Amino acid sequence: MEKKKRRYFPDEFKRQAAERVETSGLSIMDVAAELGVHETQLRRWVRQFGTAGT
Fold first, then answer.
1. Cross-referenced Pfam families, in alphabetical order (predicted)?
2. Going residue by residue through the chain (54 aa), what tens digit of pLDDT does each one get?
3. Cα(6)–Cα(53) distance, rounded to whole angstroms?
4. Nearest-CA neighbor of 39 among 51, 27, 49?
5. How many whole angstroms separate alpha carbon 1 and alpha carbon 25?
6. Contacts of 22 (CB under 8 A, 6+ apart)
7. How many Cβ atoms sit within 10 Å of the Cβ of residue 32?
C-alpha cells in the first residue's frame, strides 16, 4: 500500500482561507468544501491566522 503524501499549503493560502471564513458569512464547512481541505484543518488556520487571534 502506498503511503499518503502530505499536502503543503503556503501561509498566504492559509491566511486567505481564514479571512474568507471570517468575512464571507459562510460556515467553515462550506469554505472547506470550496477549498478542498478538511474542516478541522481550516478551523486550525482560523485560530492561527484569523483576526480574532491576532
1. HTH_Tnp_1
2. 788 888 899 999 999 999 999 999 999 999 999 999 999 999 999 999 977 655
3. 26
4. 27
5. 41
6. 46, 50, 51, 52
7. 20
Grid cell for residue 25:
458569512
Global pTM value: 0.81
Q: Which amino acid, one-letter code, is at 24?
A: S
CA 28 to chain centre: 8
The closest of 48, 17, 49 to 31, measured between CA atoms, is: 17
- Whole-angstrom Cα distance, residue 16 to residue 5? 23
> In terms of Cα–Cα distance, which of 22, 12, 10 is closest to 47?
22
